Amino acid sequence: MGGFCDLPEELLMKIMLQLPIKSLVCVKCVQKSWNRLINSKAFVAEHLEQAITNTNSSLFIFNYIFNKLIERNQMVDEFVTICNSNHTEIQHMISFSIDFGPPEFPTNYSNAIHCNGLICLLDTHHRFVSFVNPALRRFKQLTAPCNPYSLGFGNYFTPIGFGHDSTNNLYKVVRLVISKFIIGAQIHILGIDDDDSWREIEVEIEILKNYEIYLLCWHDEQLYCKGVYYWILNAGAEFEMMILFDMHNEKFRTIRLPIQDYPPNTKLALWNESMVLFRYPAYWLEPFGPYEMWVMHESINGDDEKSYSWIKHLTITQFEFHYEPLVFWKNEELILKCYTRARANMDHLASYNLRTQQLRRLDWSRLQQIIVYAFGYVQSLVWID
Length: 385
Prior knowledge:
The chain is mostly beta strands. It has helices spanning 9-16, 21-27, 32-39, 41-53, and strands spanning 58-67, 72-83, 90-97, 109-115, 118-123, 128-133, 138-143, 160-165, 170-179, 181-189, 199-201, 215-216, 222-225, 228-234, 240-246, 252-256, 265-271, 274-280, 291-300, 306-316, 323-329, 333-339, 346-353, 359-363, 370-376. Strands 21-22-23-24-3-2-1-25 form an eight-stranded mixed beta sheet, with no helix packed on it. Strands 12, 13, 14, 15 and 16 form a five-stranded antiparallel beta sheet that branches. The chain is globular.
């Protein structure tokens, strides 16, 4: 009678796909054929598709907490799950702190982007672009490119984007270079380019040459969604657009944002695999409302060109406190953060259900922290050496 090792590879793959990642990492060490199977592109892709399909209750949160020993804010990284209860007004958030990297790994980040279980991090000085898969506990660091445009332009912004070219199964990181105007871009393909190699690409958008961009892309105003990275550009009340970068054809283009009647704050978020735009009032405005949620609709025209439009999904007329949208959890639950009047401290977190329109307070022991980034997290086997 044959043993477990003698099972057909197709059946073995189905069994392995049911195991959690920690078990798969251990199983790889048992037998060479198992290691080869688990590391295969087919297995990694099937495992990722299964992980994305399954409802995910985990959030990944980057936040600052004041460290009394060093007398300054320090970045803390942790997984958060929410214990849902249909019978109380309070939901409980449970944190699991993680050891995020080796000692030489950056501890403060100006940006954090999630794609298929990989997290891309840009350090506050924009010197390194780092990648981590927390489930595999694997780390990689690139040296950010030198800025060949800096001479004669003075100060400049260098926002990054990160995403997946699903057609070629490639992961790419792109960097814009901006000094009043968008003056260039550079791209690195993980696993293909050398670690310090960045390729120049053109930003062929005529309209951007006519506007001086003085504010670009806080972390709330950029997002990766289905092979495209988006940044909100702001160059005055008459010019509010998003610039997008297609990870496959490596082309830039712009789309207009919904027309606004007053200058609210903006926030991009993922909802049901679609990109949404929130418009909400500044914290000093009274009363606190309205809150608008716009869903971006994508279609293909006769020339196989994508076109985009916006549909207003809902309007929340007024909250009792000033809330800022943070991240969606399980699609219908929008996590909100509430600040004090002076916006110096976070007062509490809340969950708003889009379907029932019920607002519930979240009980979290980390309320003294300042949340910087938050996104839904998928555990995966994806890695690129």
